[in-house]
Amino acid sequence: MKIIHKDLDHNKIKLMAETLDDIWHLSNVIQPNDLVLAVTFRTDDQPTDKVRTKKSSKKRMKLGVRVEQVKFHEFSDRLRIHGIIEEGPQDLGSYHTFNVTAYNNDKLTIVKEEWKKHELQRLDEAVKQTSQSFVLFVSLDNDEATIAVLRQSGVQWITDIASHQSGKQYESENKEKQYFGDIVKIIKEKMTEETTLVIVGPGFARDHLIAFGRDKYPSLFDGCLSYATGNAGMNGVHEAMKSGVVEHIAKENRVVRETKIVDTVFQEIKKDGLVAYGFDHVHRSIDASAVETLVITDSLVRTKRGDKLVQEADNRQSDFIIINTMHDAGKKLEGLGGIAALLRFKI
Length: 347
Known about the structure:
This protein is an alpha+beta fold. The protein is 35% helix and 32% strand.
């Protein structure tokens, strides 16, 4: 994320999204009733109301839209911002949608009635994490490989690759080389200098792939990490995530931190430790200044009572972390009502 201009005296920030993770961060920052200004394309005004004989042309213009709806389309790298045109050369009062895409240098100006602390923190985090590496997972066994990317927004599945190995040894050896070659082809497409490659899975397929890769593609595989899991596929990826194998690679990666803190919440619940969960219990704990860290889902923090609770926690010097409901940790927290707290002392 690149912050181009910040004017908090007028609650205005101009920025540019540079990655898919930035798009996801914006989906959590831009809220209904915000004013978003951007350069876009819209059908040009016609000089008359007569039936058009030619296809209408699209004209480039700057519009300001009062936001009604924000939708993040993860696998199309797109954020849709929909609302009523409030500023611009034409069509005031009509609806328009900004389609903000990753890697397209889309610049937005966001004007809020008031910028909340957690929204500013998220932007700061996005700026900091732009230069950080992400993790490319290959999770495989003898039958199939899954390739996935760990992003700030969560684990994104890329593709599955079947081995098509047969029972005959010489045919199986040839098929294995083809299988590994297909995997390497995807790795080469997704790897950058900042990417860490992690190979996981049960059995010996993982070791064979690494030996194949280091022999033929040492620049890709020499720095890779290997971790044994009980499962292949996405289950193997999640198993490796929970083990902490990637924590030293991506200490600041949001999904890693969120998974760790939600796991801590459940560990404290299991041993009846320093934890509160559910809205009422957490609210009482905040009132008693007992909360060390408030843990709340992104969907709940968007509500008035959730936002108010975050502000109350902040006023009492409590830390807070907002958990993304798009990944497993967020779904687990939703099972507790979307909110929990790690405590300084029991109440």
